[in-house]
Write a structure and sequence with these properties.
By secondary structure, the protein is of the alpha/beta class. Helices cover 36% and strands 19% of the residues. It folds into 2 domains: 9-103 and 238-272, Leucine Dehydrogenase, chain A, domain 1 (Rossmann fold); 107-234, NAD(P)-binding Rossmann-like Domain (Rossmann fold). Helix 4 crosses helix 8 (236-252). Bound molecules: NADP nicotinamide-adenine-dinucleotide phosphate.
Length: 273
């Protein structure tokens, strides 16, 4: 599609943003659907000015990444119920000048897990108690999973569990909780810290489904260990793609080409592909 004066513009805002795979993923999605549009990245340090710019320039849709996911909420016209429950916005939808904040991280995680297993009634251990843990825990719990939080700083797991009405435990008690699904939401294992494990390998039971939301590298040390032990694994690219797919569908009204989006991300992560 040629870029013309009326071509819709989409963007990701964050700081840093240069490493973001969202432009590659969303531009591939627009092309695969033969939709006009261009998706770019903006490093944003002055968030109110950036939101004013989105309004002034009529930017159609925006992904919001760290560190702006919470602060942006006060600057928008409307916040969706899910984003309000999670307490963070990862997507802005510009509906004729009205900026609405929504959150697709939770549904992205749920759909990623559902490629491998069902979650309703299953015992899920979530490692971490940060922003991603909050979105993932909320969505899985809402889908009927029995969720418990385990975090390096136990107090944070306890606080988040209390806020979301979930269980929590200390890392040393993880095995005793007998999780059927384990989700890593910590950055442990992320490049350049490749090789680090967020839990001892012995915690991984062959019957477990293990999902890592870290997507660089695509096969983290945790997923490699889980595969060796015979567990079913789900990589972080799945969540990245499904949260992006939900954004794309909200912005364009067109079914997201998830296979093309996944391929674009995999290619970007492995230049030799
Ligand atoms: P965050 O808010 O900073 O939370 C980080 C969490 O990880 C905290 O609970 C922290 O524990 C824990 N943690 C950090 N370093 C640790 C270490 N060395 N050992 C043990 N625990 C550690 O970060 P976030 O926004 O939740 O993001 C977490 C990860 O998810 C990042 O790698 C991000 O790239 C990834 N992510 C992926 C997707 C996707 O679509 N695949 C989406 C969102 C985020 P303490 O409380 O003890 O500090």
């Amino acid at each position: 599609m040629p870029i013309q004066a009326h071509t819709p513009v989409y963007a990701v805002i964050g700081d840093p943003v240069a490493h973001s795979l969202s432009p590659i993923m969303h531009n591939r999605a627009l092309a695969a659907c033969a939709l006009p549009g261009v998706y770019v990245g903006f490093r944003v340090t002055d968030l109110p000015a950036a939101i004013a710019g989105i309004r002034a320039l009529g930017i159609r849709g925006v992904s919001v990444t760290l560190p702006h996911k919470v602060a942006v909420m006060a600057l928008l016209d409307d916040i969706g119920d899910t984003a309000r429950a999670i307490g963070a916005v990862n997507t802005i939808v510009n509906d004729a000048g009205q900026l609405k904040g929504i959150n697709t991280d939770g549904i992205g995680a749920l759909k990623a897990l559902e490629t491998a297993t069902h979650v309703t009634g299953r015992r899920v251990a979530i490692l971490g108690a940060g922003g991603a843990a909050r979105a993932v825990a909320w969505a899985l719990s809402r889908a009927g999973a029995k969720v418990a939080l385990f975090n390096r700083t136990a107090d944070k797991a306890e606080t988040l569990a209390w806020q979301l009405n979930l269980q929590w435990g200390r890392m040393k008690d993880l095995s005793a909780w007998r999780a059927e699904i384990l989700v890593n939401t910590t950055p442990v294992g992320m490049a350049p810290g490749i090789g680090a494990l967020p839990v001892p390998e012995a915690v991984l039971d062959p019957a477990m489904v293990v999902m890592d939301i870290v997507y660089n590298p695509m096969e983290t040390a945790l997923l490699a260990a889980a595969r060796r032990r015979g567990c079913t694994t789900v990589d972080g690219v799945q969540m990245l793609v499904f949260q992006g797919a939900a954004q794309f569908e909200r912005w364009t009204g067109v079914a997201a080409p998830v296979t093309a989006m996944r391929l674009a991300v995999i290619e970007a992560l492995s230049p030799q592909f």
